[in-house]
């Protein structure tokens, strides 16, 4: 009987979802208990400006939209990039971001989490203010991955990059040249010659690991302790797909998340690659939403290379705030038993644009996922 009811609800939600694709002002009507999570990356004010407050306002206290009780941001909060030194990575405090969020959301009813990106090393709050590892929310988990945990494949490489910076600082010939795709705003872990780039990110203090090697092992150990099948939302500033050659930890994370996806619905969110679009390369828009069963080319280290894989989890762009975009993830618990039955990804623009699809994919916006059995 319950199975028939769930199938009926699925059909109704699917119809409503397709109808809602045409406009942000025609959201689905949920039954049972709902809660939502706001996600986005790349707030930094270079270029088009800071759209965080406007994006939060877009999803707060609107008719038919579930106001988020959790905000999860994915790094790169200020500046123009690491190549510009302290000018490109100015000092800032996360209190500024909180004030922008609380301009539209109730501080007594909203949890906020900030993962670390490569622009963020001069945060005056020090690294303890950033989020990594797991956190239990209302019927789901969130998990944070820092920049170094994706940008470096092994702990030994991270330590070597830090030692190189301690020895020579920023004054290393060729340490910050443009990469092969003409994106000069982000140094790759390796030089075109194969030599290691220096690294001075404060996420080397992360207790959950300093590279994909140690951090993915910590995730796996944590996931093994979980009972039930509650979904896990993972935020990584750096993506796993092959594009800029600056994410050699991607394959380790892909393999680890794939194992966890046997038991849990997983959504892996990414940011970081907005500079490609700003320079006319729209290829990454084809990665804005990939579903289980879709194919993806995952970046590995210098030995593994890039490998074509089939996804067993959902992979999505969180929304580049710098370009005006964000995503609202809504969980629907139809029988209010504490375990959500459905998850919806819905992409919003803070600057007036509307999207009926996720980027150049064939996935309609919003996108509904039926979650695993409880």
From TrEMBL:
Domain of life: Bacteria
Residues annotated as signal peptide: 1-22
Alphabetically ordered keywords of this record: Signal
InterPro entries: Calcineurin-like_PHP, Metallo-depent_PP-like
Listed Gene3D superfamilies: 3.60.21.10
GO molecular function term, any single one: hydrolase activity
Residue intervals of the Calcineurin-like phosphoesterase domain: 39-275
UniProt-listed Pfam families: Metallophos
UniProt-recorded name of the protein: Calcineurin-like phosphoesterase domain-containing protein
Organism whose genome encodes this protein: Xylanibacter ruminicola
